[in-house]
Amino acid sequence: MRKPKVSLCMPVFNGANFIDEALASICEQTYADFELIVTDNASSDDTADIVRRWAEQDPRIRYIRNDRNIGAAQNSPD
């Protein structure tokens, strides 16, 4: 599998009110050679369901969920 030229990281915590619009904006860009890694810091709202739905529809999106809130500074992929 070929690696994308650009990796985008989107940390999120309880972002259900805006995540759908943010994902749509990223995915509708004219530049398409990217991967989007969404790291969820143990959201308690509908963030997980929304991001999982997007990830099922778009193979460029990868969803990582932390089991507990680890803070903003550490909520990024390794």
From TrEMBL:
Class in the EC hierarchy, top level: transferase
Keyword Iron: no
Pfam families registered for this protein in UniProt: Glycos_transf_2
SUPFAM superfamilies, per the entry: Nucleotide-diphospho-sugar transferases
Record GO terms (molecular function): glycosyltransferase activity
EC number, UniProt record: 2.4.1.293
Superkingdom in the source lineage: Bacteria
Glycosyltransferase 2-like domain ranges (all copies): 7-74
InterPro entries tied to this protein: Glyco_trans_2-like, Glycosyltransf_2, Nucleotide-diphossugar_trans
Keyword Amino-acid biosynthesis found: no
Entry keywords, A to Z: Glycosyltransferase, Transferase
PANTHER family linked to this entry: GLYCOSYLTRANSFERASE, GLYCOSYLTRANSFERASE TAGX-RELATED
Identification of the protein by name: GalNAc(5)-diNAcBac-PP-undecaprenol beta-1,3-glucosyltransferase
Gene: pglI
